[in-house]
């Protein structure tokens, strides 16, 4: 299918996964075009840089006559999108983005899938970055528009393919098939297992079952440093895995963690089961225990691929993170403005704790935008607890998903604020937010815009406010 298709059309091309896929296909020599809404997306720069044209809207008449293949996701009506329906009417091949990714991965000699409910974008970006530094010329597709000034998707050859493997459903509520079940990787690096996506999974047990099916008879490196993940580890049968290693246990253990001037240092001790007894120190430009754990998982993966400890140490040391993951937006006077994609209580906790490590004497201020009504409703107490780790949190209205029927939910961001009124303030508009920030912000806070919606766009209003404070 991929080899025959020359003119490929992507419906919803501005989405991060779609934009990265478009970049890969273009570098593979395909003619790529797509459609999306007129709203500005974080991937605009990536698409423009690659001269990939985007049509505005989804009119069936705008589907080019020479199209060989149409790729679509669950967004923009999914299989009911007018352009998808038009393609089927013309007998043009159509395929979901998740299914196509599985087909694409077959083109490579070694595929490494990076999965996990939290941290997989940073881990997959680091793995792709390290392979590039090691001279392996990998192709890759991660869940960010860029990292370390590199694009979130690239094609350099057919030896290695690093792919961020998403556990979300293909097209909820109609098709709940986990996206990563279409992948058949040679190696799996899993950062953790947790209950997320209540619109797809019933509970933690259901989530664990889905991950275990993905792991079956595959080479697995698993970062087991929390309760749900360790619980999953205990249910594994080692006979079902060709290569198996997990952190904080007999196979590999992290120790001597230190905060240094530009990140962290740690020691990794690896048992003979994986690669002979090994003890080595590493430094990274990232902070927080979760980033260290995920980095150790990347190190284990690279060792399994045959790279030496010394070369791995040098390859990872300058990685500074992916876009929208603890991303430094601006420093104005003594005030720092960061942006982070954290949208689950555990991700929020991890980001705030990492900020405490990096800025132990500063006040942490979070501007949080909940993402999806189903997730907000399922984790109200957990959100209140995690957001309460900041000195002050301003919580915005919920950013909905087009897949949800908003009328079927009776939940508001204010429900979270009520559980922790001393730390969390509900603001129902950007104007009200700016009024609160004007009175609260002094000149030395660490501020985060946080969430999976469009909260990152607030930088356009926050930066002028900070400049007026510093003047």
Automatic annotation (TrEMBL):
<dbReference type="InterPro" id="IPR005758">
    <property type="entry name" value="UDP-N-AcMur_Ala_ligase_MurC"/>
</dbReference>
<dbReference type="GO" id="GO:0008360">
    <property type="term" value="P:regulation of cell shape"/>
</dbReference>
<dbReference type="InterPro" id="IPR013221">
    <property type="entry name" value="Mur_ligase_cen"/>
</dbReference>
<dbReference type="GO" id="GO:0008763">
    <property type="term" value="F:UDP-N-acetylmuramate-L-alanine ligase activity"/>
</dbReference>
<keyword id="KW-0436">Ligase</keyword>
<dbReference type="InterPro" id="IPR036615">
    <property type="entry name" value="Mur_ligase_C_dom_sf"/>
</dbReference>
<keyword id="KW-0547">Nucleotide-binding</keyword>
<protein>
    <recommendedName>
        <fullName>UDP-N-acetylmuramate--L-alanine ligase</fullName>
        <ecNumber>6.3.2.8</ecNumber>
    </recommendedName>
</protein>
<dbReference type="GO" id="GO:0071555">
    <property type="term" value="P:cell wall organization"/>
</dbReference>
<keyword id="KW-0133">Cell shape</keyword>
<dbReference type="GO" id="GO:0009252">
    <property type="term" value="P:peptidoglycan biosynthetic process"/>
</dbReference>
<dbReference type="GO" id="GO:0051301">
    <property type="term" value="P:cell division"/>
</dbReference>
<dbReference type="InterPro" id="IPR000713">
    <property type="entry name" value="Mur_ligase_N"/>
</dbReference>
<feature type="domain" description="Mur ligase N-terminal catalytic">
    <location>
        <begin position="10"/>
        <end position="109"/>
    </location>
</feature>
<dbReference type="Pfam" id="PF02875">
    <property type="entry name" value="Mur_ligase_C"/>
</dbReference>
<dbReference type="InterPro" id="IPR050061">
    <property type="entry name" value="MurCDEF_pg_biosynth"/>
</dbReference>
<dbReference type="InterPro" id="IPR004101">
    <property type="entry name" value="Mur_ligase_C"/>
</dbReference>
<dbReference type="Pfam" id="PF08245">
    <property type="entry name" value="Mur_ligase_M"/>
</dbReference>
<keyword id="KW-0573">Peptidoglycan synthesis</keyword>
<keyword id="KW-0961">Cell wall biogenesis/degradation</keyword>
<dbReference type="GO" id="GO:0005737">
    <property type="term" value="C:cytoplasm"/>
</dbReference>
<comment type="pathway">
    <text>Cell wall biogenesis; peptidoglycan biosynthesis.</text>
</comment>
<keyword id="KW-0067">ATP-binding</keyword>
<keyword id="KW-0132">Cell division</keyword>
<dbReference type="GO" id="GO:0005524">
    <property type="term" value="F:ATP binding"/>
</dbReference>
<dbReference type="InterPro" id="IPR036565">
    <property type="entry name" value="Mur-like_cat_sf"/>
</dbReference>
<keyword id="KW-0131">Cell cycle</keyword>
<dbReference type="Pfam" id="PF01225">
    <property type="entry name" value="Mur_ligase"/>
</dbReference>
<feature type="domain" description="Mur ligase central">
    <location>
        <begin position="114"/>
        <end position="300"/>
    </location>
</feature>
<keyword id="KW-0963">Cytoplasm</keyword>
<feature type="domain" description="Mur ligase C-terminal">
    <location>
        <begin position="324"/>
        <end position="453"/>
    </location>
</feature>
């Amino acid at each position: 299918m991929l080899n025959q298709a020359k003119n490929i059309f992507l419906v919803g091309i501005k989405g991060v996964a779609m934009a990265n896929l478009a970049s890969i296909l273009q570098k593979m020599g395909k003619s790529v075009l797509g459609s999306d809404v007129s709203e500005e997306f974080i991937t605009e720069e990536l698409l423009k840089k690659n001269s990939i044209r985007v049509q505005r809207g989804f009119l069936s008449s705008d589907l080019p006559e020479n199209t060989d293949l149409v790729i679509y996701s669950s967004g923009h009506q999914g299989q009911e999108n007018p352009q998808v329906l038009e393609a089927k009417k013309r007998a043009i091949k159509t395929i979901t983005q998740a299914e196509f990714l599985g087909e694409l991965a077959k083109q490579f000699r070694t595929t490494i899938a990076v999965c996990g409910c939290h941290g997989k974008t940073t881990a997959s970006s680091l793995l792709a970055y390290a392979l590039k530094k090691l001279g392996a010329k990998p192709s890759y597709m991660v869940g960010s528009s860029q990292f370390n000034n590199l694009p979130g998707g690239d094609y350099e050859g057919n030896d290695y393919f690093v792919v961020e493997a998403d556990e979300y459903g293909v097209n909820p509520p109609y098709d709940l098939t986990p996206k990563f079940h279409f992948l058949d990787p040679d190696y799996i690096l899993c950062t953790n297992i947790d209950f997320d996506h209540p619109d797809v999974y019933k509970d933690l047990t259901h989530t664990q079952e889905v991950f275990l099916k993905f792991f079956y008879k595959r080479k697995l490196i698993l970062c087991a440093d929390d309760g749900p993940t360790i619980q999953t580890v205990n249910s594994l049968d080692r006979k079902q895995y060709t290569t198996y290693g997990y952190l904080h246990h007999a196979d590999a253990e992290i120790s001597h963690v230190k905060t240094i001037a530009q990140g962290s240092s740690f020691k990794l001790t690896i048992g003979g089961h994986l690669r002979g007894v090994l003890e080595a120190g590493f430094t990274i430009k990232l902070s927080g225990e979760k980033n260290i754990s995920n980095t150790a998982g990347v190190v284990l993966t690279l060792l399994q691929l045959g790279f030496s400890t010394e070369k791995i140490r040098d390859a990872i040391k300058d990685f500074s993170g992916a876009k929208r993951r603890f991303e430094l937006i601006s420093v104005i006077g003594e005030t720092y403005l960061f942006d982070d994609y954290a949208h689950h209580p555990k991700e929020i906790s991890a980001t705030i704790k990492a900020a405490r490590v990096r800025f132990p004497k500063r006040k942490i201020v979070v501007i949080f935008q909940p993402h999806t009504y189903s997730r907000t409703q399922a984790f109200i107490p957990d959100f209140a607890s995690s957001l309460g780790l900041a000195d002050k949190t301003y919580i915005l209205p919920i950013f909905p998903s087009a897949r949800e029927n908003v009328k079927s939910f009776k939940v508001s961001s204010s429900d979270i604020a009520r559980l922790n009124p001393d730390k969390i303030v509900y603001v129902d508009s950007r104007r009200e937010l700016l009024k609160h920030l004007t009175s609260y912000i002094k000149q030395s806070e660490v501020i985060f815009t946080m969430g999976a919606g469009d909260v990152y766009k607030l930088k356009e209003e926050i930066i002028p406010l900070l400049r007026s404070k510093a003047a």
